[in-house]
Amino acid sequence: MLMSRYSYLFLAFFFLFSCNGEKENIQQINSVLQQQVNAWNEGDLEGYMQGYWKDDRLIFTGGKSLNKGWKNTLDRYKKAYSSKEEMGILSFNNLEIKLLSDRSALAIGEWRLIRITDTLQGRFTLVWSKLNEKWCIIADHSS
Q1: 2-142: CATH number
Q2: How many Å apart are CA 21 and CA 69, to the nearest integer?
Q3: Per-residue model confidence as pLDDT tens digits over 60-89
């Protein structure tokens, strides 16, 4: 009987701390996404790219193109959005973040870009990894 009480206490603390860790990780990912939105809306593409893994193995696929590498992805953005007006105002909506482990996550959602001449929108799937205690996107599929 005594052993089972300790077992229950252990399980209660385990679930309490794992739930808090899950919430903290999700908050950190949300924070990175908000920093990206803020940087984009200020016309700062390099600031926006800080949410991505700064590595040649980063994968970005959107439309009909596949880009590999942080620099190539930044160059793609610079080519497609050469001015603050072309960048417009970005928002992320209907976001769902699922932790796959304490070091990996999946996020799906909708993006919307409001510009003077038009509004663009689509969906995204982001694969996240916690590297050097920082969450970053290692793969992005946006349509």
Answers
A1: 3.10.450.50
A2: 30
A3: 998 888 999 999 999 999 999 999 999 999
